[in-house]
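User: Once you have settled down, look closely at the record that follows, taking as long as you need, and be ready to discuss the fold:
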Amino acid sequence: MTSTRASPSRSTLRTPAGTWHLITGTARGRSHEVRGLPSQDAAAHRQVSAGRGLVVAVADGHGHHRHFRSAAGSILAVQAACQAAVRLVSLFGPLPGAGAGDRGAAASRLTAEMIAARLPCDILRGWRAAVARDVRADPLGQGELDVMESRGDGVEVAYGSTLMVAVLAAGWLICAQIGDGDIVAVAPDGAPGCPVPGDDNLDGLHTTSLCQPDALDFFRVGTRNLAAEPLRAVLLATDGYGNAQASDPWQPGFAGDLAALAATRDPAWFAAQVPGWARQCASGDGSGDDTTIALLLAAGDQWTP
C-alpha cells in the first residue's frame, strides 16, 4: 500500500475498468503553518493483485482540539479504506465469463452492488479497530483524557476524520464518502458528475465524520458502469481544494477545463501540475487549508499507457 502525508506520486494502473493514471499532490495549509500544526490530510492507493482493481482513498482529519489525534485518524482512515476495498474486490472479483453478454453484464453489476453495499461497514469496522490499536500502542495522556472527559467523548472522537474512496473494479467505478470534500467524475465531453449523493448535513462549518457513533448512517455510496458511461477522469479532493475556487459551483468549469487539457496533455504534464494546484489552494491566496488531490486519468488513444 502507498500512503502519503506530503509526497506527490504518479502511478499507471491496469484494471478491468481499463488503464488509469493516478496522480496525487498534497500541501499543508497556510493556516496550519502559521500555528505550527501538521497537515491533517492523508491519501493512499493500492492495486488489487493480478490487476483486478484499483483503490484510491483521501481523508481529512478535523484538526479541532476536540479531535486531538485527527492527523493520525486520517492516515488510519485511508489505510482502512484500502484494506477493506481490496478485500472486497478480491472476494467478489470478476466472475468467469463476466465480460461478455447479458449474463456477464448482470454478474458484473451484481459484483459492483455487493462491493458498494459492504464497503462502508467494512471500512468503519477496520478504522475503529485501528484506532483501538493506536491507543493501545500510544496510550492517552492525562491532558488528552481531560479533553475527552470534559465532553463525554468516546476515544474515536479524538481521531475524527472525513473519508472519500474510489474503487475501479469489474468494469465499474464504486465510490463511498463520509463528510465534506469532493468526488467529481469527468465525462469525455467535459460534463461533470458526482458519483455519490449529496449530504444536507454539510453546511460549510460542520461535517459528518467517521468518529460519530452512527457514522454508518452517513456514508454516501454510488456506482457507475464504465462500459455504458465512460469517464475521462475522477477527482478526489479535500475541502481545501473546493473552498479555494472562485466559482460556485466550480465543478462544471473544472470538468470542462480538465477534459480539454486531457485531450492535448499527457499524464507527465498532469504529474508536474497537480502538486502545484494543491500548493496554490493551500496558500494564503487560496483556502489556507490543507489540500490533497488524487486525480485518476483514463488512458486515451493519444497517450502511451
User: Anything to note?
Assistant: The CA atoms of residues 81 and 123 lie 5 Å apart. Residues 301-305 have pLDDT under 50 and may be disordered.
